[in-house]
Design a protein that fits this description.
The protein contains four helices and no strands. By secondary structure, the chain is mainly alpha-helical.
């Protein structure tokens, strides 16, 4: 087994966004089949985009470029929150699941904001 760890894997916000995306994948398994190419796909893609953009940003050389990818990650998170709200409105999610995912998104959004501030200061 390879023990090398990439820089992005050490970021707490990446770790939390990975857990968030996995949670989204799990709950969308129960969405109606008619949503497979609609809301299910959109929600999954926006959720996974958060951790993916954080990973891509760590490969950038300048703090400005890194901050750009953190901004894109934040935007993807907001897109997923919008889709969670719609999923709840359509009764695809129960209140407990919705509140749990939303709480995760709030925590990740705060962490992304702090990361971007640190990147801009660098």
């Amino acid at each position: 087994m390879n023990t090398y760890t990439f820089g992005f894997e050490k970021l707490s916000v990446w770790q939390k966004s990975r857990i968030y995306a996995a949670g989204i994948y799990k709950v969308t398994q129960d969405f109606p089949k008619s949503e497979m190419y609609g809301l299910t796909s959109q929600l999954r893609r926006s959720a996974i985009s958060v951790s993916s953009n954080l990973a891509e940003g760590t490969a950038r050389k300048t703090s400005k470029d890194q901050a750009h990818f953190t901004t894109v990650a934040y935007s993807s998170l907001m897109e997923s929150v919008n889709q969670l709200i719609l999923s709840f409105d359509l009764e695809y999610l129960d209140n407990a699941t919705y509140q749990n995912l939303r709480a995760q998104a709030v925590e990740i959004s705060r962490m992304l904001t702090a990361l971007k501030k640190a990147q801009i200061r660098s």
